[in-house]
Structure to design on (922 residues):
């Protein structure tokens, strides 16, 4: 252990770009570069909507600028903490523009529409915990809903704009909290910036974590809580330390109210931290001066609250929501390990349509990104050997980083791909610190005063190129091609499947249908209609028959009637576009039923939808040329 | 580990994590120095009250800013300032302000949920303002000799940071404007099919079909005047375009236009006009 209090002289280093004015100029240019990147990405989305060419070039150039420009600026201005901090904000805000450009003024993703249902319910009833038929556990974790709706009520802005304002503020807070973690642990603003940039290259960051839903609300709070704990263990006064830890605990409780997995992750990190500190203290029990602070207050508060909330409030909803996910993940992993089935090919998609698949060079970029992050992890962990595990806090972050290869392995099955993407947002908190450690040991010495110009330029290029490569590759890994940029309608393609025709039909149902109406529709129209009104979408199974069968049978048969009567379905919604093109994410209503086989590259047979118009059991009540809504004869339901 | 010891000197440390010195110009906990209360202490509680009033009574643009401040900044900032000086030395306090404010809003929302009115602006806005005012007041009353936070040494002048921030903000606003505009254009263009029958002079009427779909469409239009079988026309209309068909309207006869899809199996729209009475309608 060494504590070195440096003299002012030794702290003074030559600025990398001379005077503060020059640094300011460089930082301004870097900010302008990031702004240009944002405009380029926005232009890509505008071109995509208009169906014009040049979309991909604008998008990738813009995205590259968003990563490279602030990184170059931070590298050049590395001696100015204020400017590096400003460029951290520019990086975070610039990357948020990528998501905002795709869906600027309305909700777009599946998760957002599922959240919208809870938000509208809260607006209607003014009370929490109303059941959400789209995702049962949303209503049990209402923290984000409170903030989104309150801001909407107070500002008069739309729900989408209000919620996005909150998420944007949180992303900034998260970026600054990560900056703080890096700065406290590794001591350099540049390394802290690089930590934030590394975190921003996780596959979930650009799109998944930017959308409006409970997980993206809770995660920044958890990271601020971790940063507060880190600040607390460095605080001299015991009273002050307790106060900061209590503040971190309050954040932990709010996280527990907002999202299950984030609260469990936070609890696990804090408990691990406490255990590591306790073991260290036990080993140095005779040397008071070597003892470290144990963050047991936030660890206990977060763990007890998250556990209690699960036991007394959310266990049923979570079992219903996460049970099938874990079961299918377990089966898929078991099947791959036992050799019963082969692993999923990376970047493979169910439908072989152009908009769904990346060209080979982008796939290579994705591989390079994943490989680069693994290299960072391994080399960063290798640096820990110098510390002989004395740096307990860094060891905690290293443990967190070890989630990354585990998450990467989960990409090998279709059932666990989404879980794999989600683990990145947790593991990269650790990877950011571990990568910073690698920088400190390997590249930082080349920035010393005596270092040659050439070595500084090389180091800079490594930093800028590395971050840009990891960032671009992470988009390839984490986001399906059709979901990155706005464009014409595509079947079964999340954001690209939501268009005004669907919204118009959903608005009609919200105006006409009575509350509690049960209906059957494809997944996109289900979530649109159920998000806007108090309606219940029917899916799953009735007497062992999949509701999807209703949409695949060539005629209205006895199985259809059993489904309609069993689920008491009042309306059937069909979207003609499903019969014109294959779904990007595989067969919309499942791949098969007795007598019908729908391959991944085929649309729904047109005859399956035509049967509703021909049958006397259904009457057409809405038709906008694309989406048709049929009312099921009430005698059919009652029978 | 060196920096976790509670009794070591904390000012301007350079951390050694096992051999490599990693300290630098970054994180340095600052020593508190006694001084007079901050002159701006009153600004934030007053701002909170004004924001609460504005969100309840004010016009839209003012409500946007007031609501954002009240929900995501002011309560957290007041709480942070009320805590010991060490908390205020958190390197980037903005993160703590935002996070703490959101926690306050969540807790106020939960408390409001337990009341009969529930989560409404009239309950939440005064509560958030009250938290800010009470916490700020406690600071003024109980910590009149509160040592002010020493400003960190800034390597560049604080005001000059406006240049990169402003540059980026202007360009980011342009990016958002491009996205919103193109999105609005797409939303307006893509709607549905419209059909209308409108009277014109000399016993004529115009049947207008507008294709507001996102792709070119083929339609079958049947115009019936009650005299024999109606005329059937096939129309190929590009996306966003209209086609007008001039038709003669015999007196005392209703003109009915029925629009079918290209295969003439599905009725999309129907519109009618009674020229002598001027009454018209559509489905």
């Amino acid at each position: 252990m060494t504590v070195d209090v440096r003299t002012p002289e030794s702290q003074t280093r030559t600025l990398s770009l001379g005077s503060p004015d020059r640094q300011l100029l460089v930082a301004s240019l870097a900010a302008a570069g990031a702004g240009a990147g944002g405009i380029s990405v926005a232009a890509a989305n505008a071109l995509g909507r208009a169906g014009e060419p040049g979309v991909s070039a604008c998008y990738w150039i813009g995205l590259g600028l968003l990563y490279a420009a602030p990184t170059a600026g931070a590298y050049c201005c590395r001696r100015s903490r204020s400017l590096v901090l400003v460029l951290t904000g520019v990086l975070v805000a610039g990357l948020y523009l990528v998501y905002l450009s795709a869906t600027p003024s309305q909700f777009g993703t599946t998760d957002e529409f599922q959240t919208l249902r809870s938000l509208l319910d809260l607006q209607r009833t003014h009370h929490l915990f109303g059941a959400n038929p789209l995702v049962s556990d949303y209503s049990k974790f209402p923290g984000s809903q409170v903030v989104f709706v309150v801001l909407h009520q107070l500002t008069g802005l739309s729900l989408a704009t209000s919620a996005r304002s909150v998420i944007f503020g949180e992303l900034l807070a998260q970026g600054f909290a990560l900056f703080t973690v890096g700065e406290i642990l590794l001591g350099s603003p540049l390394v802290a910036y690089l930590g934030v940039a590394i975190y921003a290259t996780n596959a979930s960051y650009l799109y998944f974590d930017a959308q409006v839903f409970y997980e993206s609300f809770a995660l920044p709070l958890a990271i601020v809580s971790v940063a507060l704990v880190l600040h607390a263990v460095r605080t001299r006064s015991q009273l002050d330390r307790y106060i900061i830890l209590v503040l971190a605990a309050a954040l932990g409780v709010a996280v527990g109210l907002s999202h299950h997995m984030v609260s469990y992750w936070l609890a696990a990190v804090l408990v691990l931290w406490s255990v590591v500190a306790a073991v260290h203290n036990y080993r140095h029990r005779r040397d008071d001066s070597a003892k470290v602070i144990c963050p047991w207050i936030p660890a206990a508060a977060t763990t007890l609250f998250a556990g209690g909330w699960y036991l007394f409030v959310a266990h049923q909803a979570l079992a219903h929501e996460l049970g099938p996910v874990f079961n299918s993940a377990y089966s898929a992993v078991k099947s791959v390990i036992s050799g019963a089935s082969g692993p999923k090919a990376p970047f493979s998609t169910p439908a072989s349509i152009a908009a769904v698949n990346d060209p080979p060079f982008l796939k290579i970029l994705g591989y390079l990104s994943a490989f680069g992050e693994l290299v960072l992890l391994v080399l960063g962990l290798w640096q820990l050997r110098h510390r002989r595990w004395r740096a307990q806090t860094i060891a905690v972050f290293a443990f967190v980083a070890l989630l990354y290869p585990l998450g990467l392995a989960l990409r090998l099955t279709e059932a666990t791909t989404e879980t794999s993407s989600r683990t990145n947002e947790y593991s990269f908190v650790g990877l950011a610190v571990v990568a910073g450690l690698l920088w400190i040991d390997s590249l930082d010495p080349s920035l010393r005063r005596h270092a040659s110009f050439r070595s500084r330029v090389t180091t800079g290029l490594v930093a800028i190129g590395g971050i840009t490569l990891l960032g671009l590759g992470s988009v390839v890994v984490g986001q399906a091609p059709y979901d990155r940029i706005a464009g014409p309608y595509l079947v079964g393609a999340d954001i690209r499947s939501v268009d005004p025709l669907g919204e118009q039909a959903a608005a009609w149902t919200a105006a006409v249908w009575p509350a509690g109406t049960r209906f059957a529709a494809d997944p996109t129209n289900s979530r649109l209609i159920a998000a806007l009104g108090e309606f219940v979408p029917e899916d799953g199974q009735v007497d062992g028959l999949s509701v999807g069968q209703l949409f695949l049978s060539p005629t209205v048969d006895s199985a259809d009637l059993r489904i309609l009567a069993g689920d008491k379905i009042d309306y059937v919604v069909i979207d003609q576009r499903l019969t014109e093109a294959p779904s990007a994410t595989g067969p919309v209503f499942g791949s098969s039923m007795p007598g019908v086989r729908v391959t991944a590259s085929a649309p729904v047979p047109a005859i399956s939808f035509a049967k509703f118009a021909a049958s006397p059991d259904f009457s057409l009540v809405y038709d906008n040329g694309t989406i048709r809504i049929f009312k099921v004869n009430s005698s059919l339901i009652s029978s | 580990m060196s920096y976790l010891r509670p009794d070591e000197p904390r000012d301007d440390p350079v951390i050694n994590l096992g051999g490599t010195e990693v300290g630098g110009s970054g994180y340095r906990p600052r020593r508190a120095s006694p001084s007079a209360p901050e002159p701006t202490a009153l600004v934030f509680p007053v701002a909170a009250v004004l924001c609460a009033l504005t969100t309840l009574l004010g016009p839209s643009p003012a409500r946007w800013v007031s609501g954002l401040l009240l929900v995501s900044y002011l309560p957290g900032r007041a709480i942070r300032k009320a805590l010991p000086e060490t908390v205020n030395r958190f390197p980037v306090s903005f993160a703590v302000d935002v996070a703490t404010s959101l926690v306050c809003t969540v807790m106020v929302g939960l408390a409001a949920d337990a009341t009969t009115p529930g989560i409404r602006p009239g309950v939440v806005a005064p509560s958030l303002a009250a938290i800010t005012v009470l916490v700020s007041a406690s600071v003024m009353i109980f910590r009149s000799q509160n040592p002010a936070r020493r400003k960190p040494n800034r390597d560049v002048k604080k005001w000059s940071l406006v240049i990169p921030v402003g540059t980026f903000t202007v360009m980011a606003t342009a990016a958002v404007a491009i996205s919103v505009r193109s999105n609005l254009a797409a939303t307006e263009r893509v709607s549905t099919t419209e059909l209308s029958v409108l009277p014109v002079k000399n016993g004529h009427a115009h049947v207008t079909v507008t294709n507001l779909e996102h792709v070119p469409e083929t339609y079958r239009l049947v115009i019936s005047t009650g005299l024999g079988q109606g005329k059937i026309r096939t129309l190929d209309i590009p996306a966003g375009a209209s086609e007008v068909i001039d038709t003669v309207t015999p007196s005392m006869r209703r003109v009915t236009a029925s629009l079918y899809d290209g295969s003439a199996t599905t009725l999309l729209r129907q519109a009618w006009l009674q020229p002598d009475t001027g009454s018209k309608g559509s489905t």
